[in-house]
Design goal:
22 strands, 444 residues, FAD/NAD(P)-binding domain, single chain, alpha/beta
Length: 444
C-alpha cells in the first residue's frame, strides 16, 4: 500500500476521506471514539463528551437529490428531506457497501497528534491513540481531521449581566433532546439559527410561552420552493449562481431581498436581518412564521440583563417568570489533540487555506475536512475536499506557496472583517460560493 493516512472521526467527512484515500492508493486508518459511524447523525439520548449532539426531531435541510455521495444515491423510497435516522441508515449503508468499515478502529480516542522529529523532510506525524485504557503511538505520513464543528458549545454567559443570579435553568441547545421536560414552562431561546428555530417551534406546542431573542434577525426559508420543489433543487444551480455573479451588486441585492420576502415580509415578524442584502445565512423552518402569527412564539431583540426570574430586552420589555433559558449560540472550534501552533486562529477564526489546509506547515500533510460551511449539502462538499486532500498527499496536486495561501486567507479575512463591522457575522466568500453548503447540522 501507499502512504499511511490517519483519519480522525468516522462521520460523513471521515468516510469520504477513507474512500478517497483508497482511490488514490493511500493506506487509511480511521479512529472513531464511538462504536459506530455517522458522527453528528448518530443520535444519542444524551450529549456525549467530545461528540456532536442532535435532538430527536432533526430533519435535513438539504434534499436527498442534492446531498448524496456522487456514486451512491439514496433509495427511491427515502423522503426528499430525511429524519436523522434515515440519514444515519444511508451513511451506514454507504460504509458497508463501499467496504470502509475494515479501515475504522472504533471506540478509539485520538489523544495527540504531533510532528515527528524528521517532519521537515518527511512530513510525518506521530499519532497517539487510546483504547481500553491502553495507549498506542503510530507514525503516519499524513493526517485528515474529520472531527466536525458541532462539538464544543459556545456559552456566552459573560455577555449577559445578571445571569449569575438567574434562578431558572440554563442549557445549551447541544443538551436539548426533546420537548417533554418543558411542558407548561416559560422558555427563552437565545439565538436565531436552525437549532433555535427548530427548538422554539417544537416547544411552542407544549410550553406555556416561548420567546426567541435575536441580535440581528435572519432570513427564514421554507424547504418547499417554486412549484413545490425542494429549495436547493431550484436555488443551488449553476445558472442561478451565474446570474448572481454577473448582475450588478445592487440588482442582485434587490432581487435577493425580494425573493427572501416572497413567502412573508420579514419586517412584519420582527425577523428582518441587519444588512439583509449581504446574504446572511438563512434559517430553514416551515412552521416558524405560522407559530409567530398564532402567538405561540414571540420574537424579541437582544437581552440586556437578567434578574433572578426574568429577562429584560433591548426594547425595554420584560419576560417574567422564566423557567428555562436555552442558548442556541453555536459552537467554537477546538482540536485538543493538536498543538496550537499547527492550526492557528485569528479573530476567533481558523486560518486554513480554502478552509482545509494549514498554510504554514513545512509539508502539506494535514487537511481538515468538513469544517467549511457553505450553501448546499455537506456530503458532496466533504467528498470534494477529501478528493483534493488525497491528491495533495500523493503530490498529484500541488498547493500554492505559503505566502500565496496566506494572501488568500488575508483577503477573505478582510472581507469578513468588513461584514463584522457592518453587523453581519457570516463569511461572504462561503455564501457567494452557492455550489456547496452544510446540510443542517443543527446550525446555531
Amino acid at each position: 500500500m501507499g502512504k499511511k493516512v490517519a483519519i480522525v472521526g468516522a462521520g460523513v467527512s471521515g468516510l469520504a476521506s477513507i474512500r478517497c484515500c483508497l482511490e488514490e492508493g493511500l493506506d487509511p486508518i480511521c479512529f472513531e471514539r464511538s462504536n459506530d459511524v455517522g458522527g453528528l447523525w448518530k443520535f444519542s439520548s444524551h450529549a456525549e463528551e467530545g461528540r456532536a449532539s442532535i435532538y430527536q426531531s432533526v430533519f435535513t435541510n438539504s434534499s436527498k437529490e442534492m446531498m448524496c455521495f456522487p456514486d451512491f444515491p439514496y433509495p427511491d423510497d427515502f423522503p426528499n428531506y430525511m429524519h436523522h435516522s434515515k440519514l444515519q441508515e444511508y451513511i451506514k449503508s454507504f460504509a458497508q457497501k463501499k467496504d470502509l468499515l475494515r479501515y475504522i478502529q472504533f471506540e478509539t480516542l485520538v489523544s495527540s497528534i504531533k510532528k515527528c522529529s524528521s517532519f521537515l523532510t518527511t512530513g510525518q506525524w506521530v499519532v497517539v491513540t487510546e483504547k481500553d485504557g491502553k495507549q498506542e503511538s503510530v507514525l503516519f505520513d499524513a493526517v485528515m481531521i474529520c472531527s466536525g464543528h458541532h462539538v464544543y458549545p459556545n456559552m456566552p454567559t459573560d455577555s449577559f449581566p445578571g445571569l449569575e443570579h438567574f434562578q431558572g435553568k440554563c442549557l445549551h441547545s447541544r443538551d436539548y433532546k426533546g420537548p417533554g421536560a418543558f411542558q407548561g414552562k416559560k422558555v427563552l431561546v437565545i439565538g436565531l439559527g436552525n437549532s433555535a428555530s427548530d427548538i422554539a417551534v417544537e416547544l411552542s406546542h407544549l410550553a406555556t410561552q416561548v420567546i426567541i431573542s435575536t441580535r440581528s434577525g435572519s432570513w427564514v426559508m421554507s424547504r418547499v420552493w417554486n412549484d413545490g420543489y425542494p429549495w436547493d433543487m431550484v436555488y443551488v444551480t449553476r445558472f442561478a449562481s451565474f446570474l448572481r455573479n454577473i448582475l450588478p451588486s445592487f440588482v442582485s441585492d434587490w432581487l435577493y431581498v425580494k425573493k427572501m420576502n416572497t413567502w412573508f415580509k420579514h419586517e412584519n415578524y420582527g425577523l428582518m436581518p441587519l444588512n439583509g442584502p449581504l446574504r446572511k445565512e438563512p434559517v430553514f423552518n416551515d412552521e416558524l412564521p405560522a407559530r409567530i402569527l398564532c402567538g405561540t412564539v414571540s420574537i424579541k431583540p437582544i437581552v440586556t440583563k437578567f434578574t433572578e426570574t426574568s429577562a429584560v430586552f433591548e426594547d425595554g420589555t420584560v419576560f417574567e417568570a422564566i423557567d428555562y433559558v436555552i442558548f442556541a449560540t453555536g459552537y467554537g472550534y477546538a482540536y485538543p489533540f493538536l498543538d496550537d501552533s499547527i492550526i492557528k486562529s485569528r479573530n476567533n477564526e481558523v486560518t486554513l487555506y480554502k478552509g482545509i489546509f494549514p498554510p504554514q506547515l513545512e509539508k502539506p500533510t494535514m487537511a481538515v475536512i468538513g469544517l467549511v460551511q457553505s450553501l448546499g449539502a455537506a456530503i458532496p462538499t466533504a467528498d470534494l475536499q477529501a478528493r483534493w486532500a488525497a491528491k495533495v498527499f500523493t503530490n498529484t496536486c500541488i498547493l500554492p506557496t505559503t505566502n500565496e495561501m496566506m494572501d488568500d486567507i488575508d483577503e477573505k479575512m478582510g472581507k469578513k472583517l468588513k461584514w463584522h463591522v457592518s453587523g453581519c457575522h457570516h463569511d461572504p466568500d462561503l455564501l457567494h460560493n452557492e455550489e456547496i453548503k452544510t446540510l443542517r447540522q443543527p446550525k446555531d
